[in-house]
Amino acid sequence: MSYRTSYSQPKSSLSTSKVKAKAKSSSASSVLASPTSLKISSSRFDSIPRGGGFGSKTGGKTAFAVAYSNGSIPCRLVTGTAKMALEWKQTFEEIDYESILPLCVEGLKEIAHPYFTVAKMACIELVSAEIAHETIPPILPEVIKRLREVMVTTSRSNLDAFATSLEFLIGLSNAVTESLTPHITLLLSPIAAEMMKAGSGRTSSAAKSCTKTPGGGGEINLKEKSLEVLQILEENGGEEAYEIIHKKIPTYSR
């Protein structure tokens, strides 16, 4: 929006210099009032997704975002000069995996900070805990249901979330081993779709930064990561897992 100010020839005794000074002052005030000029300093940040402030119930789109905002997720994001970390309010032995882990998996659908960041870090840490092999098997049906929803909904629109779901699946398989085998059929379709995409494979840049992998960071090739997932599922699930994978994805072989 542009602002214009017109002045008629002065009929009073005001001098020409005073009129010009008054016009300059009025023009400056108009510019300051412009909404566009007020946003110049922050406009470069407008496209960055962000959630509501801590304690806010706005900004997220899942039950995880609501739970994290009202303090039901027993952790908080701590940021430092070089990295971010989660600070847990409970030990892993005290955490209610039955309610917390499915919520964190659902949180992988989020795109706003801090929800997606917290969800992916929490997922990796929960399946990496020593107690995971005992606490997760009974709740696998619900975890797999939420994970499938994430993989299906993010494979096209949110590559970082899809990559994180693959990383989580690797950790989940390592935690529960053959207990996962009866459920893997539900997860093979989105993995197969990614592997069949033309070219050398799409890449994601964010997922690995929150894993336990030394030197995490850098890009993840989703086609290569999908193949790695299948290999881990087979390794932990044995012959039964291989038969299920090969039946769904005939191109997969040892």
Structural features, described:
The protein has 254 residues and is mainly α. It has one domain (46-248). Helix content is 50%, strand content 6%. It has 10 helices and 4 strands. It has helices at residues 16-33, 35-38, 63-69, 97-106, 115-128, 132-135, 140-154, 159-176, 185-195, 222-248; strands at residues 75-79, 84-88, 203-204, 220-221. The strands form 2 sheets. It has a two-stranded antiparallel sheet. A two-stranded antiparallel ribbon has the order 3-4. A hairpin with a 4-residue loop joins strand 1 (75-79) and strand 2 (84-88). It is globular and about 45 Å long.
Short description:
This protein is mainly alpha-helical and 254 residues long. It is 50% helix and 6% strand. It has one domain.
Topology record:
Blueprint (H helix, E strand, L loop, with lengths): L15 H18 L1 H4 L24 H7 L5 E5 L4 E5 L8 H10 L8 H14 L3 H4 L4 H15 L4 H18 L8 H11 L7 E2 L15 E2 H27 L6
Antiparallel strand pairs: 1-2, 3-4
Helix pairs in contact: 4-5, 4-7, 5-8, 7-8, 7-9, 8-10, 9-10
- Strand content range: 5-15%
How do the strands of the widest beta sheet line up side by side? 1-2
Nearest-integer average pLDDT: 79
What form results from the Cα inertia axes?
A: globular
Proportion of helical residues = 40-55%
**Roughly how many Å is the radius of gyration?**
27 Å
Class based on secondary structure composition and strand pairing: mainly alpha
The stretches of 5 or more residues where confidence is low (pLDDT under 50) are 1-20, 27-58, 207-216
* Beginning-to-end CA distance, first to last residue: 65 Å
Structure summary, number of beta strands: 4
Largest sheet: 2 strands, antiparallel
What count of domains describes the coordinates? 1
Order of helices and strands: HHHEEHHHHHHEEH
**Count of helical regions:** 10
